[in-house]
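User: I'm curious what two different proteins look like when written out as structure tokens. Can you demonstrate?

Assistant: Sure. I'll show them one after the other, since each token string lines up with its own sequence. Here's the first protein:
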Amino acid sequence: MSFQAYLDNIEDKTGLTPREFITLAHEKGFDDPSTKAGVIVDWLKADFDLGRGHAMALVHVIKNGEKIDAKHVGTGTTHSDASATLWLDGKLNRPG
């Protein structure tokens, strides 16, 4: 499953876009560089019943924004993404 597919699945499950999760994390102070991933994972499990893989995808966007490493782009593998820029504003708002 691509990184973007993880984010799309989270939106399907929770009704929240990745950008909305970033806002919620900011309100809780979880975007602070000193916040450990485990704290965010625990919050996402408790409040949204997300598993570790999906929670870690959100940890990445909370901590690093929309960019992913280019080594995951266009590889043709199961985990390949089409772009090094993730779409965070919801599936229905995605261009193209």
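Here's a second, unrelated protein for contrast:
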Amino acid sequence: MPEDRKPPIAFETTCTVPAPPEVVYAHLADPRSYIGLSPLIVAVDEVRHGHDDEGRAVAEYLAVERFRLVGPVRWDNRIRVRMVSTPPHGPLVSEVSSPGWVSLRAAVTLTAESAGTRVHERVTADAPAPLRRFVAREARRVAAYRAAELTRRMAAR
């Protein structure tokens, strides 16, 4: 991997969802909830639960991202995810390892508000130069979609 990489891609998203933090937390701590919560995730497999050295809950799993390339041509990208959660309200930290030397870290914190729960996500990602623009665009698009879908799911419960 080249040493002259640019600084990581970094951005934040915030939304308020109409549910208490415990409900939002339980939803986000379940790896299978990410199917459809991200517009790319179509499957979650090989889920393993455990605890790290600090006693925090850890879920490790394989997620399948489906990218539409041209017309009906699709590419399934299998990514490894390690999610560390600190109940009852967070943070939830997901570290993603994707083929092509792409990595992503998402840290979610939850704050109770009168309207429900404020969900704040900080995303950092790193990718080789040829993939940076694509990774940055997709990560931002997915984060915005995830905030809207989480809001919809919490309102529908």
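A detail about the second structure: The mean pLDDT is 92.
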